[in-house]
Design a protein that fits this description.
alpha+beta, 4-stranded antiparallel sheet, 11 strands, about 20% helix, disordered C terminus
């Protein structure tokens, strides 16, 4: 097992090195919890050969614990992992040239402590840790038109019910 771990890590570093030979750096996005002097999402130009990470952009989102990109890598979705009714999903336009963010939308997840976000290009799903719920957001013609269409608490086998609801809505 240990050999497999080492082989996977070596492969990762070889891929990163080949990436850096072509582009010089790799874009790195980092979500952070709040502290005295920071919070939100940061973008870096990361050079895997030298280990240098140059800060490029920042946008504030309280307790941005998890994020994902759409398939075109021009929209970043992030959750604000709050233990109350301010927990939210935020969408940002992401400029790949200067690694900057512009806010698109901010929607409450209707569940506490969202700790996961994923998208397939048509919907965005958050998993809300403390409440044991999921929230599903339909992506409109533009990301700023996102709206919650399902927010359901999961008990036992209700995940299959939530999935059937998504199919019923023809998402």
């Amino acid at each position: 097992m240990r050999r497999l771990d080492i082989a996977i890590m070596a492969l990762f570093f070889l891929l990163a090195a080949s990436c850096s030979e072509r582009t010089g750096s790799v874009t790195m996005l980092v979500g952070t919890y709040d502290s005295d002097n920071s919070g939100g999402i940061y973008s870096y130009a990361f050079n895997p050969r030298t280990g240098e990470a140059v800060p490029k952009g920042h946008t504030y989102l309280r307790d941005a614990s998890f994020l994902t990109l759409n398939s075109d890598v021009d929209v970043v979705y992030a959750v604000s992992e709050r233990p109350d009714n301010t927990a939210a999903l935020a969408a940002y336009s992401f400029d790949r040239d200067n690694l900057s963010f512009s806010p698109l939308s901010h929607s409450l997840t209707m569940g506490e402590d969202p700790c996961y976000v994923a998208t397939n290009g048509k919907i965005v799903v958050t998993a809300n840790y403390s409440g044991g719920s999921i929230s599903v957001f339909r992506i409109g013609q533009s990301a700023e038109q996102s709206m919650s269409i399902i927010s359901t608490r999961l008990f036992g086998k209700t995940l299959s019910t939530a999935i059937r609801s998504c199919w019923t809505l023809r998402i």
